[in-house]
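A student in our group prepared the protein record below, which I am reviewing. I have pasted the whole thing underneath without changing anything:
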Amino acid sequence: MFFRKTLVVLLFGALLAGGGAVVAQTVDKAPTPAASACPVVLQHQFLRLQDESTQNLCQYAGKVVLVVNTASYCGFTPQFEGLEALYAKYYARGLVVLGFPSNDFKQEAKSAQETADVCFNTYGVKFPMFTSSVVSGAGKNPLYVALEKGGAAMPRWNFHKILLDRRGRVVASFPSQVEPQSTQLTAAVEKALQAR
């Protein structure tokens, strides 16, 4: 803390002495408070589908996040391909897709291994996937509780999509029928990525 205050004083002194360019470069490289803090909606940990290790969602702070409840044996399951394409297209610009398998609508595999096989081997999913959990009703997982408090429409079926801006605010919800690469969804993603 002392070092940071000293640096600020020195940089301010440099600015007064005509060293404005040095200050501008330093400010540009410093993380903004919004990007460095973890929004409340992301302050949760879940087990990864790949290896059941714990993953903290705070690592996605400052990114545009698309949360999707998935199922292995649903008419919308082929949307995994579109979700992966969307993730690949916008990842470098700051989009992350988070998949939450759920058997709420009785169309998820019985084991994590079977779910993983469908996601990774059948559809080539590379975006983060988590172990099966409840996403609707009274027992929904804490992320979905926070999403609902943030104004998101809750899933009525598999592959419901919820978009968060870089500050963790809910900006849109899309029902299952909205394809991942639809104009409606990609326009919302583009807008969220461009906003600072």
About this structure: The two ends are 27 Å apart (CA to CA). Helices lie at 2-16, 20-29, 33-36, 79-90, 112-122, 142-149, 183-194. DSSP finds seven helices and six strands in the chain.
